[in-house]
Amino acid sequence: MKYFQIFYFCMLIISCSGTHKISEAVNQKTTAKPEHYVFFGLDREEIRKSSFYNLKEFSGAQIAYTWKSLEIEKDLYDFSAIEKDIVFLANKGKKLFIQIMDTSFNVKHIFVPDYICKEPQYNGGVNLQYTFDDDMDTNPKEAGWTARRWDTAVANRFHKLIGELGKQFDGKIGGINFQETSVDFGSTGTWHPSGFTPENYLEAVKSTMYAARSAFNQSTVIQYANFMPGEWLPLHDKGYLAAVFEYAAHIGIGIGGPDIIPYRLGQMNHGYYFARQYQGKLVFGFAVQEGNYDQINMKTNAPLTVEEIYDFAKHYLCADYIFWHPQEPYFTKELKPLLRKTPHKI
Hints:
alpha/beta, two-stranded antiparallel sheet, about 350 residues, TIM Barrel
């Protein structure tokens, strides 16, 4: 933890003038209609279909790129996919918003470069996440791999990738976002990876936020922040998620998250709660992901509609960006007609 504290303290001193500039931009936030992007995830070839690029209601595409695909060998970067996507979208009058993936949700996939997993100084590079039946960590089920974000050696390599991306693409993309802060190793400590604590995980998240802030001064930076390990609000509040929002406001980056599910209790007590507290102080970008459309509206106990999702994102969360998964039939039958309405109707 000491490393991360020294790191972001020193970097804050270096960057104070740039932070002021970005903070001014955040304070000028208006209530204009949010920008809409289609979230294609890793399916980047979908942007080449006219059924997407002819949609005038969308500013562009949000595409995910894995760390492994961008750093193919140690210090050997391949950004050709991003370059091609920028050019294609620009020719169609659209922008690219990139998501960098270091965590998978399937044990078949590891998104960290091979050398990180093999060289001993990185301590395996990744660890398994789990789902459990209860807060006693019974019946663990493997739920995917996450980079060892709290490991200094691994974090240094990830920050270098961010720096290289900034050199090449700052100002050329609509924005960049990082995966959710939530990781699940259970609550008892039995399944915690080596070196992991909730406290040093928080410092690691902050250090990555600052690395992104340092690399991108023109393009929007968004950290997805939904839950933090080691606390559950409001009963077990350790201040971890609060600290992420506070730090984002301090250095002038945006916050967002996956899963716009109106009035779901867990989100209402965590990411949504802090989004309300920081309105007017932060840029917000939230994603409507696959499976969000067919949830229950916890306020009405009826199936959600796309209009309710949009209304919640626009008026409750005050989202500057909404990233929509093109899940059918909702995308074509409900979302497209909704966005074609005049602004005063939505």
